[in-house]
Amino acid sequence: MAGKNEVDSHSGMETTGHEWDGIKELNTPLPRWWLWTFLATVVWAVGYMIAMPAVPLPGGFTKGVLGWSSRGTVAAELKEAAAAQQVWLDRIAATDLAGIEKDPELFNFAVAGGRSAFGVNCAQCHGSGAAGSKGYPNLNDDDWLWGGKLEDIQHSIAVGIRSTSPDTRNNVMAAYVKDGILTGAEVADVAEYVLSLSGRSTDAAAAERGKVTFGEQCVACHQEGGVGSRELGAPNLTDAVWLYGGTKADIIQTVSYGRAGVMPAWAGKLSPETIKMLTVYVHALGGGE
User: Considering the entire predicted model, what is its pTM?
Assistant: First the structure.
């Protein structure tokens, strides 16, 4: 070790007397302003630990003499917001669907609440804008399998489609080839007839044969001329709206193996007020009747 108070020849500063591998430690204490700042932060930290929740313990944490916590603040804010919303929810509960739509303030609240509930519970299938996709209905148009009036939409949301609810809307498209009811050739003819209903058939003879088979097997649900039935949830085959695709290959796939999409029943999972708000929101998208 070198002697104390030695002056370093390069910097002109005294050393501490410590030396490692020829490297000498300069005696350069911290500035006083930095030291006082550090001491102030220590005092502040001690005061904070006394006043606020700070120290984790096996059974929880120190509460602090002020008793404040961010969790408590959030809980109080949520309670306050829930109380403010409850006034509107009570009005939703006491007003029928048509009345909600006639009341501008109540309608705006219902649409906002319905949009929020839709984003959490429905957008996964119907899309964030409710435009749907293959196999999932577009809720913006005016093509409704089970009806697009307020009461129809509310009922569909509450009981679902082919859900586990005892009151669910339920009708199944038969799998005509899979179940051995029709041959592949007969199904191809039926597909050609279905295409003819919207003016897209390219084989008149096949369409004529398919018309006979359609009358024997499909009219009970899809009705004469393929106009569909909302009581049975049977699609209108004469328009350009296709849930599972409208090409000949898509139609053959549907007729051969059937379709049985499921929509969950939301009654019991969502409050009656939330279902009402969802109904108003979906109806207001533009396709509601």
Answer: 0.76
Least Cα distance to 139 among 239, 254, 265, 289 occurs for 289
> Could you tell me how many residues make up the chain?
289
pLDDT at residue 189, rounded to an integer:
98
- Residues 182, 183, 189, 195: what is their CA dihedral angle, to the nearest 10 degrees? 70
- Which tokens in the block code for residue 256? 């051969």
**Residue 235 pLDDT > 50:** yes
Rounded-to-integer distance, Cα 49 and Cα 19, Å: 41
Q: What is the DSSP string of 241-276?
A: --SS--SHHHHHHHHHH-----B---BTTB-HHHHH
H or E stretch covering 77: helix 70-94
Domains assigned to the chain: 15-61 (no CATH), 76-166+265-283 (1.10.760.10), 184-257 (1.10.760.10)
pLDDT digits over 91-147, tens only?
A: 999 999 999 999 999 999 999 999 999 999 999 999 999 999 999 999 999 899 999
168 vs 263: CA distance, rounded Å:
9
Q: Which residues pair with 26 in a beta bridge?
A: 15
DSSP structure class, residue 37:
H
Residue environment code for 162-173, b if the CB has 16+ CB neighbours within 10 A, otherwise e: bbebeebbeeeb
Strand, helix or coil at 112?
helix
User: Whole-angstrom Cα distance, residue 66 to residue 263?
Assistant: 51
Residue bearing tokens 């804010």: 77
